[in-house]
Amino acid sequence: MRVIVIGAGVVGAAVAAGLARRGAEVTVLEAERPGAGTSGNTFAWVNSAEKEPEPYFALNHAGMRAHHELAGGDAPWYFPTGNLVLASTDEHRAALASRLARLRSRDYPAREVTAPQVRELEPDLVVPPDGDYAFFPEEAYVLPLPLLARLLGEARDRGATIHSGAFVTEVDGGVVVTADGARYEADVVVSCAGRWSTGVAALAGVEVPMVDPERVGSAAVGFLATTAPVPARLSRVLHTSHLNVRPDGGRLMLHALDLDGVADPAAPDAGVAAEFARRLPEVLAGTEDVPIEAVRVGQRAIPADGRTVAGFTDPRFYVVATHSGVTLAPLLGDLVATEVYGTESPMLATFRPGRWG
To answer: At what angle do helices 325-340 and 10-21 cross, to 10 degrees?
Structure first.
């Protein structure tokens, strides 16, 4: 079977690898370069804790297990060290209590911890004395570009061809044309175009509405900051009431939800770097003089109703789009390949693109 995969982010790479494992002749068309979209600008937290409704929760929980299986116990991109939450505001404490109750009813590993237990897990944390604390031991983070390299490498090893700078301008059945005039033919075309999914699907005559990733204040837009190398201990994802932090290969990656409302993809606000630098020592000791090396605006791929899209729109065009690309990539690589080869996945039954008519 010949398959064209449009997009070489983590989802497209996983789908290409999954198809190549099954013996497909795979061609990947990437408009810029692999990882140039959302995959290269993501907090990369692997979780299911905040995913609703229940079928979306279950899909992401299976995605967590798929990461573990792909890594095989030890991999340079995968860090299953858990997620630690420190809630110090009334709003955050109430949200954390609600989340814990919901997750316990679903047998999702989550537990309350004490301040001494927090310090044992992360000795350099500044622990708010009046906070509520919780630990989610099966959650993880990944380094997305090494993960992408792993998936694309497998696809190439199994015979896939990857074309960078291949901007798709036409999709007609199994024929795809790119801006340079090149023409590609396949039995099935799979769109994994991320935040560009609306435009690619429209070329095939299909509606896949996405949250606007260019509009200031959009849910699809948010700041990500990266520190200089930092001599402070942190081994896992950390969520606090004012700052989210994860390790980033000797540096730290920072995110603050309340700052995202002014994020502009066209003009990252230099003043935000100072605010990130101010907040970091309030969370992690030993970071008082650590500079922020970069602030960028991440642009998320979010379907209009927030839920994953996965399925055929006709026998030759399959579309995948999801806000949970990092969490779901290894799982979707397997499920989508299975569906392309003719076996429907019950896990994807509620996520079909036909819900938009």
So the answer is: 30
